[in-house]
Amino acid sequence: MRMFKIWVIGMAVCLFVSGCGRQSTAAFERKEGKTLYLIALNEEGPYWKPLIQSAQDQARERGCTLIVKAGLPGDSSRPQKLIEMVQEAIDQKADGIAMAALEPEMFDIKAAEAMAAGVKVVTYDTDIRTYSNRLAYIGTNNYEAGMELGRRGAEDLKARGITGGRLTAVTYSGSAQNMTERYKGLKDGFSQSMDQDAAQFTWCTWIINDLSVSRAKEQLETQILSYPDLKAVFTLGTESVITGTMEAIKFQNLQGTLYHYGFDYSPTLAAGVDEGLITGIVDQNCQVIGRTLVDKLADAVEGRDLEKEYLIDVTWVEAKDIKAYGEKAER
User: Fold this and answer.
1) Which residues are in the Periplasmic binding protein domain (predicted)?
2) Per-residue confidence band for 38, with pLDDT thresholds at 50, 70 and 90
3) CA–CA distance from 175 to each of 170, 208, 233, 306 (Å)?
4) Which of 29, 108, 173, 241 meets the CB 3.0–4.6 Å disulfide criterion with 128?
């Protein structure tokens, strides 16, 4: 009897172990259909969150599994961590990768490795250096978007009778490719629209806040106090830039006097409309970008040819319309 009990217990253990073994194997089986990776610089905020959500919605429409990997703003190791996320996609034999190239040179090499491994690669937000290492760039032409911001700002200032003075710009990085392209476009667009009066304006050294609200506020206040003829400030994106700029304008009591033109919609900007802390914005159509990323990547996996670029235009929004614009289901 005792031997029989031992035999029963032993059989139960064997069945349990073998059952667990099958469950474990099933848990790691690759799902049927296309598996795509979306590598994002951030997963929060008014640009990234809608972009990711629209990409996820489109992935469901296309029958794809979308794996989202995102970095953290302000993390000094973010470039390396993003590269490791791309490597994970390669190791997992993903069908496609959509990557925002925070460091174009680093991602250039990784994109080439992914393509060599048979993984389809598209870029967005910021492109890589070597276009042959990806199938397509999808999103904003940052130079043209900067030009649109500069043109619109110049037209608005002319409408207010302002044809001379100083200008400044605030950014989170002086080296990120999207920021340098926006800044160059901003100055070119402003000069183009101002025409002969462009010579009457002087650009201050642009402010680089390194994602610090207090730093942005402090630097802009320094320029405000140093240059009484400062007429306009252009912010090139990111919450810390926007918040620091608005705090400086408010603290110096320049609401409605120092004109602020921004890049990308944010609830922070909408909240500043009534106080005269924002004059107008150009906004990237992030939801269209997210959908297009998945669509084109899925097309490539299915064997369709892609164009080298799919550029999504920005939208100009005056201060009086910003609140309603932000409340729309899709921007």
Assistant:
1) 42-304
2) very high
3) 13, 10, 20, 30
4) 108
